[in-house]
Amino acid sequence: MRRSLPAVLGALVGLVVALAVLLPGYVGLDRVTPFVQLAALTPLLLVVVMVSAFVGRFAGVLVRRKGPPLDERRPRLFAAGFAAMVAAALVALTAAGIVGSRLLADDAPVGSRGPTVLTVNTDRGRADVDALAALVRERAADVVVLPEAGNLFRARLTALLPDYRGWTADASSPDDVASTSLLLGPRVPAPQIRSVPGRLFGTLDATVSGVRVVAVHVAAPYPPSQVGLWRDDLARLVAPACGTPPAGPTIVVGDLNATADHSVLRAATAGCTDALPAAGSGTVATWPTALPRWFGLQVDHVLVGGGLGVADAEVLDVPGTDHRAVLARLVVG
C-alpha cells in the first residue's frame, strides 16, 4: 500500500492539473491568460480527453501480456490506473453535464408573440448584403444587430430594406470593425437610442416601448494584452443589463467574444436567458465559419430577461462573413 501511495498522489496531482486545463472557467482561473483562451475550448477538450482516456484503456487491455493480474504484478501501476479511471469518469460526467445541458431545450414559455431578433458580425462589413437582406425579410426580423457594420454597410443594407430604420454607434469611424449597427423593422415603434462609447467597439442602448435593447460588441480576450479590456467590457456593457434579473423587458444582443464556459460571461449574464442553449442549440458554433458547426465557438448571443422568453432560436449561415448569424423568436410572458 505504501508503494502505491506515490502513484495515487501523482494521479491526484494530475487530476488537479487536468481540472485547471480542462475546466478553468469552473475553478476560477479564466480571468488570465492562457486560461481565458482554454476556457473557450472546454467542451472540445473534455471530449478529446474522454475519448483518449477510454481508447487508451481499451488499447491497454488488448496489448496486456498474459500473466498474473495487474494488481498482483504492479500494485503501483494498478493504483495509478485506478485513479486515472476515476479521473476519466469525473471528466466524462462533467462533459455530460456541461454539453448535455446545452442540448436540452427549456420548456417552451407561455406568452404572446414577442420580437424576432437577428444578429451577425459582418466581419468588417464583408457580409453579403443581398443575402443578409433576404434573410432579414424571410425571417421577418424586428431587431437586427450588426457588429462590425458601419455607416456604409448600414446604408447599403437599408437601401434593400427601405422600411427598416438604422443607427450606428461610432458613426464617425471610417472602419466598419469599430462600429455596431442596429436596425429596427416596421413593426417596431420609434425608439430612444443612445450611443455608448467603447474602448474598441461602439454600443447602442435603445428603449423601444419599454423594452431595452443593447446592441454590443465586446473586445476579444486575445491577444493577451486585451484580457483586461475584455473583462471590463463585459462588466461595463453587459452586466448592468443582465448581471441581475432586469426590472423590465431586456434584450442584449451581439458578439460577446465569450462562451458559456467563461465564468466572467456567466456572471455578467446571470439574470438573463441565453437563447441558443435555451432552444437546445447551445453547442452550435457561431465562429469561425471555416470550421464545422460542432467544432467552433459560440461567441454570438441573444440574451433576454425581464419577462421575455425564448420560443426558439437557431444558427444560420450568411455568406461573406466569418461568423454565423443567430436568430431568436421571443415571447412576452
Automatic annotation (TrEMBL):
Coiled coil: none
Keywords: Endonuclease, Exonuclease, Hydrolase, Membrane, Nuclease, Transmembrane, Transmembrane helix
Gene3D superfamilies named among the record's database cross-references: Endonuclease/exonuclease/phosphatase
GO molecular function annotations of the record: endonuclease activity; exonuclease activity
Regions that span the bilayer: 7-29, 35-56, 77-99
Superkingdom of the organism of origin: Bacteria
InterPro entries reported for this sequence: Endo/exonu/phosph_ase_sf, Endo/exonuclease/phosphatase
Pfam families: Exo_endo_phos
Residue intervals of the Endonuclease/exonuclease/phosphatase domain: 118-323
Full protein name: Endonuclease/exonuclease/phosphatase (EEP) superfamily protein YafD
